[in-house]
Design goal:
The complex is a heterodimer.
Chain A lengths: L2 H16 L3 H22 L7 H19 L24 H25 L3 H21 L5
Chain B lengths: L4 H16 L9 H20 L10 H28 L11 H21 L2 E3 L5 E3 L4 H5 L1 H24 L5 H20 L8 H9 L17 H18 L15 H26 L8 H27 L13 H17 L18 H4 L5 H32 L4 E3 L13 E3 L2 H32 L5 H14 L33 H8 L5 H30 L5 H19 L8 H4 L4 H30 L1
Antiparallel strand pairs in B: 1-2, 3-4
Helix pairs in contact in B: 1-4, 1-6, 2-3, 2-4, 2-6, 2-7, 3-7, 6-7, 6-8, 9-12, 9-14, 10-11, 10-12, 10-14, 11-15, 12-14, 14-15, 17-18, 18-21, 19-21
The chains are: A mainly alpha, B mainly alpha.
Chain lengths: 147, 631
């Protein structure tokens, strides 16, 4: 995994923790899901043994992203934000990058669970819970074997 | 184990043979025997009545056997009438100790149940005509299978005719009735005589037709043997074929058909294909036995079509990446079943007994000797893969049709956050561009083509290996004509895209996009393709159309009756309510001068309000739909 990718993942994790408002967190979560999706798609052909995991993780990222877009507090419009929020080239070690993304998805799941618990709007709560489930699924799919 | 038509044929034959052992009827038992023989004959006649009369488009052969079926039915009807005289008017219950009547009663029940089994493959269409309800349906109606059925009926008629003629019932009335019935049965058998030259393969296909019922659900378990995995995969594939029924457009698109559901199904298709490729590769490395070298060559030949198939399935899944229906919820039943199938085939392909797609499960392929263990390992494993690829091909086809319907209904969107920066759309969703729809459907077409090639390669291997799944090739051959014609009329690429307008109330007509109205036409003529603008133009056209319809209605009402009805009051109230609701979303700025200049405020504001109201309420609808699944 190259340094650029590492820095981008760190920046996304920081953005998640920095988000002060629900709208900001939903937008940040949307971008993280989209980055995970793009990364998984880019790596699908790198390692045949990971094909199924990467495809399913990309699908879960799409579902999590779309769950957030359905939240009433999700900021409308804003085209261009997510399109540019794609992690850099994953580099040669797909396994290492998968570990890093599994960790990022774990952070995302925690953030979404906290947001679901903290919001008063039932529809926002459902969206955050759905997104949290998707993030947990990504983390499960991409996490490496126990050592 | 699902019952097949052959089971009922065998049962009927056994009971008729048992009845035929009796050459004499006990005193007083003639009415019961006549009644039950009449029921058997009626059951045979009902089978014949299912054969349509000949039509001008028939070939010479088809016209001949259709005529034969009609003639045989008439002969059986006469035989039945003669027996009713002997049976009397009141129903006679079969008495114990009256073996011929009891055996004939059981034979009639078996023949009736067999016909009911065949009918499960059809459902009433919009005009009452039967419509296929399973992937077996085309095989049921194909000429060779119909002729094979006629041949079975001829054999029954012949057997019963011979018995009736030899029977010695007490009394002249009964003797006359059974003799008349015998002549009718022989006449029927003679009319159908030439159908005995049917193809043996068609008889096999006829006998294999199962009841069209959903097999019981079997979740994948861990630590299962190869045989159990094959059975599980085959069962799940059958369930998937059942659930992935062709979309006819008669009913509304199910709410469970969401972007997530379509994408999960396509991902599962890709995983099933990928794992199947690994299974076939493992089978090529099994110890070769005698004539099985040809099978090994065929297995190698199937690798490329299988690889193309799963890659095309993955391409279809990728097309859903930017698309949302705004509702997540649980996936549809077919998508969930496809996910199970991926696990069954994955566990067959890989050594890990608890394999799932997750990365932490090792992906070491299973040993070839396990997959092809004698005596039937090779055939059973081949059958599982064959069924799996056949089922996902059906799934892709069904999903292509439902995706097309969703696009036509305007149910596919893209989150605006994914659009390039120069789009300034103050909503969370925008309708997907027409070219995205075209690409999506085109990718499905390619995936179906690739999967069909793969399944045909497997048809060939199954035939070579004498696998139990070879029957799939026979069904496909019978259904070939139907598959060549898309179930939902295909549209040219330029017309494939969703009309940029809200879904119509009557979804039955949603597959036929309405032509653009005058405002939308003008906007399109100006070279505008932006979905939001086109949606706005379409909304204006809709509003104008509604207004004219309302005005026309009011005008007719004035002419017809001076007093308003409850219905028109409701319509007016609805219109006012819609306008008031829309006005809440109207922007603070003044409407453009061209709209201000319109004759009334209601006329000028409604289209713009409606457009905003539509987009906003769509947004809200999407949010509600998502939340309602969980709450």
């Amino acid at each position: 995994m190259n340094n650029t990718a590492r820095e981008e993942l760190a920046a996304m994790a920081a953005r998640l923790s920095r988000s002060a408002s629900l709208a900001g967190l939903l937008a940040a979560g949307f971008d993280v899901f989209e980055a995970i999706r793009a990364w998984c798609r880019a790596c699908e052909d790198s390692e045949p043994g990971l094909l199924a995991a990467l495809m399913m993780a990309a699908g879960a990222a799409v579902e999590g992203r779309n769950a957030l877009a359905a939240a009433p507090s999700f900021p409308p419009g804003g085209g261009g934000g997510a399109a540019g929020a794609v992690a850099g080239a994953p580099g040669a070690d797909v396994g290492e990058a998968a570990d890093a993304l599994a960790a990022l998805a774990g952070l995302l799941a925690d953030a979404m669970s906290a947001a679901a618990a903290g919001t008063g709007d039932p529809a926002d709560r459902v969206s955050c819970a759905d997104a949290g489930d998707a993030a947990r699924q990504i983390s499960h799919l991409l996490a490496g074997p126990a050592r | 184990m699902t019952a097949t038509f052959g089971d009922f044929l065998d049962a009927a034959r056994a009971h008729i043979d048992a009845a035929s052992q009796h050459r004499e009827l006990a005193s007083g038992s003639a009415p019961a025997a006549a009644q039950e023989l009449g029921r058997v004959i009626a059951a045979l006649a009902r089978h014949l009545a299912d054969v349509p009369d000949s039509s001008p488009g028939d070939t010479h052969t088809a016209a001949a056997w259709r005529r034969a079926a009609r003639d045989a039915r008439l002969a059986l009807t006469q035989a039945g009438a003669a027996l009713r005289l002997a049976a009397g008017t009141a129903p006679v219950p079969p008495v114990s100790g009256d073996p011929p009547a009891a055996q004939l009663s059981a034979a009639a029940a078996a023949l009736t149940a067999g016909r009911d089994l065949l009918q499960t493959h059809f459902q009433p269409g919009p005009a009452g005509a039967p419509r296929p309800a399973s992937h077996w349906a085309p095989a049921v109606t194909t000429e060779p299978v119909a002729v094979a059925l006629l041949s079975e009926i001829a054999a029954f008629a012949n057997r019963l005719g011979r018995w009736s003629a030899q029977l010695s019932p007490a009394g002249p009335t009964a003797t006359h009735a059974f003799n008349t019935a015998s002549r009718g049965l022989w006449a029927a058998a003679a009319a159908l005589d030439h159908t005995r030259r049917h193809a043996p393969a068609a008889a096999e296909l006829l006998r294999a037709i199962p009841a069209n019922t959903l097999p019981p659900y079997r979740p994948p378990g861990s630590r299962q043997s190869v045989g159990q995995l094959c059975q599980g995969a085959t069962n799940t594939a059958e369930r998937l074929r059942h659930l992935a029924r062709p979309f006819t457009g008669d009913a509304a698109l199910p709410e469970t058909m969401t972007a997530a559901s379509w994408q999960r199904a396509a991902h599962a298709t890709a995983i099933v294909g990928h794992a199947s490729e690994i299974v076939l590769y493992s089978l090529t490395r099994r110890p070769r036995v005698g004539t099985e070298a040809a099978i090994t060559a065929a297995l190698r030949g199937a690798a490329a079509p299988l690889a193309s198939a799963w890659q095309a399935g993955r391409a279809a899944a990728r097309q859903w990446d930017p698309i949302t229906t705004g509702t997540n919820g649980q996936p549809g039943a077919a998508a969930a079943e496809a996910g199970d199938l991926a696990v069954w085939i994955g566990r067959l392909a890989y050594r890990d007994p608890g394999w799932t797609p997750a990365r932490h499960h090792p992906n070491a392929p299973r040993q070839p000797a396990e997959l092809a263990a004698p005596p039937d390992g090779l055939r059973t494993t081949l059958a599982a893969v064959h069924h799996a690829i056949d089922a996902v091909t059906h799934l892709l086809s069904a999903d292509r049709d439902t995706a097309r319907a969703a696009a036509a209904e305007g149910r596919l969107f893209i989150p605006t956050r994914l659009l390039p920066g120069h789009y300034d759309i103050p909503y969370r969703y925008a309708p997907i561009p027409a070219e995205t729809t075209d690409t999506l459907l085109g990718t499905y077409d390619a995936a179906i083509t690739a999967a069909t090639r793969a399944v045909r390669a497997l048809d060939d291997i199954a035939a070579k290996a004498d696998s139990p799944s070879a029957i799939l090739a026979s069904i496909r051959a019978a259904a070939q004509d139907q598959h060549a014609t898309p179930r939902v009329p295909a549209k040219p690429p330029s017309a494939r895209h969703a009309p940029a307008r809200p879904p119509r109330a009557d979804r039955r007509h949603a597959l036929v996009p309405r032509p653009p109205g005058p405002v939308e036409t003008t906007v399109r003529d100006l070279g505008i393709s932006e979905p939001a603008l086109l949606a706005r133009a379409a909304s204006i056209d809709d509003a104008a159309s509604d207004l004219v319809a309302q005005a026309r209605n009011r005008s007719q009402r004035h002419d017809a009756a001076p007093r308003p009805t409850a219905e028109t009051n409701h319509a007016a109230a609805s219109a006012r309510s819609a306008a008031q609701l829309a006005a809440k979303d109207f922007p603070a700025k003044q409407p453009p001068p061209d709209l201000q200049a319109a004759s009334t405020a209601e006329v000028s504001m409604a289209p713009m309000n409606r457009r905003r109201s539509t987009s906003r309420s769509q947004d809200e609808r999407l949010g509600r739909a998502t939340s309602s699944r969980r709450t």
